[in-house]
Every structure is written in structure tokens, then in C-alpha cells.
Amino acid sequence: MRVIPTAILTLLPSLASAALVPGGGAPMGGDLPEPLRSVAGWIFALQRQLTGEMRQHLATMKETGSWEPAAAIMLAAFLYGVFHAVGPGHGKVVIAGWFATRRARIAHGLMASLIAAMVQSASAIAVVAALAGLLALAPREVMASAGWLEVASYAMITVVGVVIIWRTLAGKGCGHDHHHHGEACRDHHHHAPATTPTAERNALFAVAAAVGFRPCSGAILVLLFTLANNMFAVGMLATFAMGFGVAITVAAIGMGALGLNRLIERGFAGSTLGTRLRTGLALTGAGLITLMGLALLAGAIIDGPTLSG
Predict the structure, then answer these.
(1) How far apart are CA 216 and CA 300, in angstroms?
(2) Neighbouring residues of 37: CB distance < 8 A, sequence distance ≥ 6
(3) How far is Cα 199 from Cα 216, in angstroms, rounded to an integer?
(4) Residue 188 falls within a domain, yes or no?
(5) Which spans in the chain are helix H?
(6) 201, 303 Cβ separation under 8 angstroms
(7) Could you give the 3-state DSSP secondary structure of residue 5?
């Protein structure tokens, strides 16, 4: 068994943060080659423009008392979510890693993306309602306190990853979402019981919920603005519209990874090698999820939470 160099272990938190968390290193797209750097810069500029439009329409609503700008606010929030999810954050690496290494049903994949986005929206609403609304904390204190939710999110991702590894090794989760309960995932030497679609689906949804537990700072800022101006209902609607935008982007990325998984599996369908490959991929995916959770958790504990996306 190879020993991982200490230098790599030291770098894991920063590498994971750069992959999943905005602000974990250089500015968005700053370390990318062209033309990706230009695309990332364009997306970031578009996010700022959409944020400005939301604030402008919210100010108009406050001045006029009219709900006419609400449709424009929802559209801007939705588009913000779509493009914001293209950049770092929102656990795309975790969800895509699941789909790339475990066979899931398309419906479950779409539902998992929606769960992650909606949990994230609900988390932001709960944070602002409790900390700013009930406890009357200042915006900076709200952001600092909400940052600890990312620590909880990373811890949950780690725990779920460990459970999935245990289930896979025990033969209870081979990474194949069987359509027939009698279809077993086994090889010639180990006759392990088949995983069930329900168990695999529940594990997937647990990963999605853990990813979404970390609220989006953009949603928190919108909610704080609307709360301060007695328009919190509008802020909640905008946050859920933002969440639907995030769900669409995450689902698109997840479906791409799922398609790759099925292409690989199709080439080895019905063979012992295919069964072993499927189990190996399942273990690899669960291991990556666990390692990513541990790395992010270590970085958040060592450097402190830095909620930024």
C-alpha cells in the first residue's frame, strides 16, 4: 500500500477549497487557461450584473409599493442561480463524482440535484430568519455564523461517504441501481446481497442534502436586504428561484457524468470484469466523496469557515 506524501495531505484542504469553494484561492477563473479564463470572467461579470438588477428592482418595489417588478426579480434570481452554479461551489464535484462512479436512475439524479438546491435555499432562509430576524444580528455576524454551516455540511459529506464505503464493502451497495431486486451484484468469489433501488436512492439523497446544507452567500445577501426593507417574502421567493437555477445547472453536470458512467458500463455489460469494475468505481466514488469531505472539513477547521458561495 502506497504511503501518500505529507506534502499532498497538507495541500488537500486548499485544493479541495479551490475546487468547491469560491475564494479558496485565486479569483474566479484566475488560474484557468484561455479561453476558460475569459468564459469564467464573463460569467462572474454577468452574476454581478444580475445582482445589480435584483437590487434595482427591489429598490423600485420599496419606493412604489408595487409588485410589478417581482417578475423581473424572480427572473434575475433564476438566471443568477444558473450561472452562479457554473462556477465553484454547490458540491458539483461531489454529485458529479457520485454519478460518474455509480449507476443511478435519471429521475433520481434530477431529484438529487433539486434536493441539493432546495436544501441550500431553505438553509439560507432559516439562517437569515433566525439570526437576523429573531436575534437581530448584524449582517457580518450573520455571515460569520452561517459560515459554520459549511463545517457541518463537510462533516455530513464525510460521514455519508464513510457509510457508503462500508455498504459497498459489505456488499450492500455495489453502485448499480438495479431495476429488479433479484439481480445481484456479485463475482465468482463473493456472493454479496444485491443493493436495492431504495437504499441506493436514499444514499444519493443523503449526499445531496449534505451538499445543500451549506447556504449560498448570494442568497443570504438578498435575504438580508429584503429583511431590512420589510420585503422578506420577496427575498424568499427570489431565493427559491435562485435555487431552481442552481438545480438546472447541477442536474446538467450530473447527467453528463451519469452518461459517462453508462457508456463505460455498457462496454462491460454482463461480464465478471464489468461487475468488478462497477464495484471498483463505486468504492472510488465513495472514497473521493469521503476524501473531499475530510479535506474541506480540515480546511474549514484550520482556517475557519469562509462562506462565500
Answers:
(1) 16
(2) 29, 30
(3) 29
(4) yes
(5) 6-20, 36-64, 70-84, 92-101, 106-127, 139-169, 197-212, 217-228, 232-266, 272-303
(6) no
(7) coil
Tell whether 73 is covered by a domain: no
| Separation CA 45–CA 51 (nearest Å) | 10
The pTM score is 0.75
Q: Is 56 a domain residue?
A: no
Compute the chain's Rg from CA coordinates.
Answer: 21
The rounded distance, in Å, linking the Cα atoms of 89 and 242 is 14
Q: Tens digit of pLDDT per residue, the chain (309 long)?
A: 343 333 333 333 433 343 334 333 444 555 556 676 777 787 778 888 888 888 888 888 888 888 888 999 999 999 999 988 887 654 777 888 888 777 778 898 899 999 999 999 999 999 999 999 999 999 889 988 888 888 899 999 999 889 888 887 877 655 555 444 334 444 434 444 445 678 888 888 998 999 899 898 889 999 999 999 999 999 999 999 999 999 999 999 889 888 877 877 777 766 677 677 777 878 888 888 899 889 888 888 888 776 655
Which residue in the block uniquely carries the three cell numbers 466514488? 285
The tally of domains found in the chain comes to 1
Strand partners, 103: 176
| Residue 171, domain extent | 90-303
Write the CA distances from 35 to 75, 83, 108, 190, 241, integer angstroms.
28, 17, 34, 49, 30
Residue 247 CA to residue 158 CA, distance in Å, equals 22
Whether residue 57 lies inside any domain: the answer is no
